[in-house]
TrEMBL record:
It holds the Pfam family Lactamase_B. Keywords: Hydrolase, Metal-binding, Zinc. This is Putative quorum-quenching lactonase YtnP. Its EC number is 3.1.1.-. The lineage of its organism: Bacteria, Pseudomonadati, Planctomycetota, Planctomycetia, Planctomycetales. One of its GO terms (molecular function) is metal ion binding. The keyword Metal-binding applies. It comes from Symmachiella dynata.
Amino acid sequence: MILGDFQLTTISGGVFRIDAGTMFGVVPKVLWQRVVDVDANNLMTSATNCVLIETGEKTILIETGYGSKFSEKKRRIHGAEPGDPLVENLAAHGIGVEQVDMVILSHLHFDHAGGATQLDDQGNPRPTFPNATYVAQRLEWVNATANFPELQGAYPQDNLLPLAAAGQLQLIDGDVEIVPGIRAEVNGGHTAGHQSLFIESGGETAVFIGDICPMAAHLPPLWCMAYDVDLLQTRRAKPQLLGRIAEHGWWALFDHDPEIAAARLQRDAKRGFAVAEALPQL
């Protein structure tokens, strides 16, 4: 996608399988099964759509997928791809890990920050992108590294602590411009420090929504995930954000949709919002 002076490319950080019930929380199966397909084990396909932004001056990556550090058992459980999908897919696009200047993370769950680090020859985790600054919300980082027992499965520390140890971590506070043309807005809900990223160039805007609305199937305002730590906040923030996107004709970038990379939205009397125009995954 050409967005003003920027080139935006969806780069897969790996496809995996996930329980569909958890992806739709309290929404009855009789409703969500109309919009997603599941296998005999109730598992659905989930993408990890990372966004490569080439500004002409910097090479910036939003999200890192789940990475390459899964044990074989966890890889089987998640139905995850072998190897390091993000690194391999970037290389296929002509981008090496040393060329990435910045990595911006919407939040720090394993399927978004897992690819931020990889194991070296001695089996120790290190930053995947040696020349990049990694950007995250301070509140998200504090919660992710606090070792809360109930959050340990969501925030493996070997995804995170090596970033700080290497001096490559930049923590931001609230709604800020990260670099010219890319700004963060905190919406919470999915996690307390969850942020969406606004990419603006040449009078055009695309919004990486993040897990506030992970797939086009989640466009109904009350359709939320079981993983949301503050369901009420998600239900407040999502329609406000989607309404702005629809009103202004911005592009919405979905992080887990296996079929749609980007879409323009419109209001819909039945579902709240619907896809008006879609750019498919390549």
